[in-house]
Design goal:
- Two copies of one chain form a homodimer.
- Chain A has 266 residues and is of the alpha+beta class.
- Chain A has one domain (2-254): Coproporphyrinogen III oxidase, aerobic (oxygen-dependent coproporphyrinogen oxidase), CATH 3.40.1500.
- Chain A has helices at 37-42, 99-114, 120-131, 159-184, 191-210, 213-220, 225-228, 249-255, and strands spanning 2-3, 8-16, 21-34, 50-62, 69-79, 84-93, 133-134, 139-140, 144-151, 235-237.
- Chain A binds chain B through residues 14, 16, 23, 25, 135-137, 198, 202, 205-206, 209-210, 219, 225-226, 228-230, 232-241, and chain B through 14, 16, 23, 25, 135-137, 198, 202, 205-206, 209-210, 219, 225-226, 228-230, 232-241.
- β10 of chain A pairs antiparallel with β10 of chain B, so a sheet runs across the interface.
Chain lengths: 266, 266
C-alpha cells in the first residue's frame, strides 16, 4: 500500500522464490492530480488539466526457462478536458518459443476479442507487434499478444462495452497462464537454458526501461519506483555479441522474434 | 570494427573475466550523416543539418565489489551549421564508498581541472552531480566526478584549449583507476557484498537506460546496439523494496549517494 505525493496511490503485491515463479508482481494503482507537462505534450493538450488513472499490471518471471514470462495490464484514464479511455493487453515472452503454445495463446486472445468486436484481434495483435518491438535490437520482446490504448466511446461502441472487453481480457490471464505454467514447469533444463534465460531477461529490461510507456508514465508522474520497476527480472545478464548456435533451440526462438507472424495459422 | 549505415563507424574492444575486471569495454566511434530529427529538436535546430561526432567511452565492471565501477567519456561534436564542441567526463560508482578514495578521486580531477581553468572543477563537479542522478530513486549513481558538455570556443578559451583539457581528462583515467583497482582488488568479500554489488549494478542499468544521453543518442542515431550497451553489467539483480541494515556498510554507502557532497573537504 503506497500513497502518491501528487494524489492517489496503490497496492503492490509480490511473490518471490515460489514453486514456479521466481519473481512476480501484481500492481494496482489509482492516481490523480495535475497532468504532468510531458504527458500533456504527448497528448497534444495545451492547458493544464487534471487526470485520473487506474490500472492493474502483472508480470511473472518463472524459475524454469521453459515457462514463458507473461505480462498483463488493464488501465483506465480520464482527463478533466472530458476525454476518457481504456487501454491494456496481454503478451507473452517465452524464453523458448513453443509453436503449439503460441498458437493456443493467440487463439485464446482471438476468442476473447471476437466476442467483443470483429476487428479487435487483428488490430490489437498488430498493435502488440509494433509496441513490443525492441527497435535497437530489431527484434520483438516475445511472441506478442494483444495491445490496445485510447479505447474511447464511439458511435458504434459504448464506454461500458469497452469496459466489458477490458474485464474479459483481465479474466483471461489466469486460465491462460495457468495452462502454460502447468505444461512447462517440469520440463528439465540445464545451464545452457538458464544462461539463455538471463540474456532474454536482459532484453526484457532493455524494452521496459527504454520503450515501455507504462514505465515512463509511472516514473514521470512520480509513481512509486519500487512498484513500477517490479517488472524487472530478479536477475538479468548481458554478454557482448552473443550469437546463438546454428540449428539450436535458441536460434529457433531468436528467428521467431519478428513482427507480423500469423501464430494462429503458423 | 563496425560500420554505421548512415555514415561512419567505430571500434569496440571488450575484456571479460579478466583478473580484476569482470566486464570492461573501450568504444571508439566516429559517425556522421544527417542529424536525426530528435537530436535536432533537442538542439533547437530547425533545418536539416549534417553532423560529425567522435568519442571514446570506457566502462569497467570489476569482479570484486570493493573495486568501484568507473566510466570515462570524451567526445567531440560538430554540426554543419558551424557549431562545434567538446564534452566528456569521468565518474566513479563505488559499490562501497571509501571516503579516502573518494577524496583522492575528486582531488585528482580537481588537479586536472585547475590546470585548465579555475572554475572547471566546481562547475563540472556540480554538473556530474546533476547528470548522474537517478531521479526516480532520488539517489546519485555513485560519487560523481566531473561531467561537461558543449565546451565550445569562447572569447576567453580557444577550441584548442578545450581539446587540451579533454585530452588531459582522458589521460587521467588510467593512473586514477589503476590506483583504485590496486588498492581494492584483494579486499576479501562474501555473499552479502556480492548481493549488494548486483543491486548497485541494477541501479547502473536503470540510469543508463532511462537517463543517459550517450545511450539515448547512440540508440536514436542507429548506433551499434552491442557497442552502446556494453556499459551494461555482466549481471544485475533487482530485489523488491530492499532495505539496508541499520549501521551496515551498505547503509553507509546508500546515505552517501547524494548531490552536493564536498568530497575533497569531507
Amino acid at each position: 500500500m503506497w500513497q502518491r505525493p501528487g494524489g492517489g496511490g496503490g497496492r503492490t503485491r509480490v511473490i518471490t522464490n515460489a514453486n514456479i515463479i521466481e519473481k512476480g508482481c501484481v500492481n494496482f494503482s489509482a492516481v490523480h492530480g495535475l497532468l504532468p507537462e510531458k504527458i500533456a505534450a504527448q497528448l497534444n493538450l495545451k492547458a493544464a488539466h487534471d487526470f485520473f488513472a487506474t490500472g492493474v499490471s502483472i508480470v511473472m518471471h518463472p524459475h524454469n526457462p521453459m515457462v514463458p514470462i507473461i505480462h498483463m495490464n488493464v488501465r483506465y484514464f480520464e482527463i478533466s478536458s472530458g476525454e476518457k479511455w481504456f487501454g491494456g493487453g496481454i503478451d507473452l515472452t517465452p524464453h523458448y518459443v513453443n509453436i503449439e503454445q503460441a498458437k493456443y495463446f493467440h487463439q485464446t486472445l482471438k476468442g476473447v476479442c471476437d466476442q467483443h468486436h470483429k476487428t479487435y484481434y487483428s488490430e490489437f495483435k498488430n498493435w502488440a507487434d509494433e509496441y513490443f518491438f525492441i527497435r535497437h535490437r530489431s527484434e520483438t520482446r516475445g511472441i506478442g499478444g494483444i495491445f490496445f490504448d485510447k479505447l474511447a466511446e464511439t458511435k458504434e461502441i459504448t464506454l461500458i462495452e469497452r469496459f466489458e472487453f477490458v474485464q474479459h481480457v483481465a479474466e483471461t490471464f489466469i486460465p491462460a497462464y495457468t495452462k502454460l505454467m502447468t505444461e512447462n514447469k517440469d520440463i528439465p533444463y540445464g545451464k545452457k537454458q538458464k544462461k539463455w534465460q538471463m540474456l532474454r531477461r536482459g532484453r526484457y529490461v532493455e524494452f521496459n526501461l527504454v520503450y515501455d510507456n507504462g514505465t515512463k508514465f509511472g516514473l514521470e508522474t512520480d509513481g512509486r519506483a519500487e512498484s513500477i520497476l517490479l517488472s524487472m527480472p530478479p536477475e538479468a545478464n548481458w554478454v557482448y555479441n552473443f550469437q546463438t548456435e546454428e540449428g539450436s533451440e535458441e536460434e529457433h526462438t531468436q528467428n521467431l522474434l519478428k513482427k507480423e507472424i500469423d501464430w494462429i495459422n503458423f
